[in-house]
Amino acid sequence: MPQDPPLNFFIIGAAKGGTTAVYSKLSAHPAVFLSPLKEPNFYAAADIDPASFSPAFRANTPDDLDAYFSHRPLASRRIGFVRNPQHYAALFKGVTPKHQVVGEASTTYLWSQSAPAAVASAHPTAKIVICLRDPVERLFSHYLMARKYGFTTQALLDAVATDRAHPSPGWGRSELFVELGLYAEQVARWLEAFPASQVRIVQTTDLSKASTWIDLQNWLGIEPIDLSTAGEQLTSSANPAGLARFERLNSWLTRLGAKRALAALIPRALKAVVLRLYYTSEGLPTLTDADRTALAPLFTADQARLTKLLKDHACAASSARSAPRVS
């Protein structure tokens, strides 16, 4: 068993909740080292088994981890489900003494019931950033991603109804459109696993404020630098909205798992051209007032509980900051 990597920082949050923005901007700081595989999902292994993924999800999730880890330096990659401790340790081989903050950003960790205890056991002094977004807006952004990937071709409310009726919901088996936005219980697990002073809640609406990034750097104990434009290219290109021009074909290719094989046949110089021909940004669905009216009640009770939870956490964190230090 390799020695545990020196992690002291984790970015967590639901898919489409702002983790890429935090990851990309903080990666620009010279004192920060974040895993080149943005989402290794290592500490969610007890909840998430790639072997149980739906054929469509499995076909569209990179699984060539042995090949990935055989090259040095490790290339930047968005997601993988790392289960080998040696592979996980290899993600942090680039850490040097200048790196005061070392970590990763896995969206599964907020949803996972086992991840908080697993992270706390391995890295009890780590600091945790939890990214939260308006749950209806998060759901809609998630829906657009699912439409683009070909996981659904249904209209928004129909897709949500179908997902909620899934006989065996779970990560990689269903979309979890609603479940991922029920934050209260998910956040509570992390607040139970870590002291209030080690957990910072960041709302997506605050990510456009310069003060958010200054505060975050101060909290991490690193010299604040201007991150206002850092990571913008990575953030904007993470998963731009778009629809396949031929959605039924796109869905069929997704279920078949053929898109990755076809992409490998396309010369690198032509990929951007092919993607522009395959996807379009015209005619994208919009979140209507009627959609919001239909979806908001699904989150009302949870949002009320979350509001109280965050208020209590803010009070606890403030008390921890003002408590006298014992020498």
Please tell me the overall pLDDT: 90
Neighbour order of strands in the largest sheet: 2-5-1-6-7
The best one-word shape is: globular
According to DSSP, the number of beta strands is 9
CATH architecture of one domain: 3-Layer(aba) Sandwich
What gyration radius follows from the Cα positions, in whole Å?
20 Å
Q: What's the quaternary structure here? A: single chain
What is the helix content?
Answer: 40-55%
Query: Proportion of β residues?
Result: 5-15%
Kindly report how far apart the N and C termini lie.
Answer: 36 Å
Q: Helix- and strand-based class?
A: alpha/beta
Low-confidence stretches: none
**What order do the helices and strands follow?**
EHEEHHEHEHHEHHHEHHEHHHEHH
Largest sheet, strands/sense/barrel: 5 strands, parallel
Q: In the CATH hierarchy, what is the class of one domain?
A: Alpha Beta
Q: CATH superfamily of one domain, called what? A: P-loop containing nucleotide triphosphate hydrolases
Supply the number of helical segments: 16
* CATH topology name of one domain: Rossmann fold
What does the model show?
The protein is built from 16 helices and nine strands. It has 327 residues and is α/β, with parallel strands linked by helices. It has a domain at 9-134 and 168-239 and 305-322: Rossmann fold (3-Layer(aba) Sandwich). The strands form three sheets. It has a five-stranded parallel beta sheet, sandwiched between helices. Strands 3-4 form a two-stranded parallel sheet.
Record the SSE blueprint:
Blueprint: E1 9-13, H1 19-27, E2 32-34, E3 37-39, H2 55-59, H3 65-69, E4 77-79, H4 85-90, E5 101-105, H5 108-111, H6 115-122, E6 127-132, H7 135-149, H8 156-164, H9 183-193, E7 199-203, H10 210-220, H11 232-237, E8 243-244, H12 247-256, H13 259-265, H14 268-278, E9 279-280, H15 289-295, H16 300-322
Parallel strand pairs: 1-5, 1-6, 2-5, 3-4, 6-7
Antiparallel strand pairs: 8-9
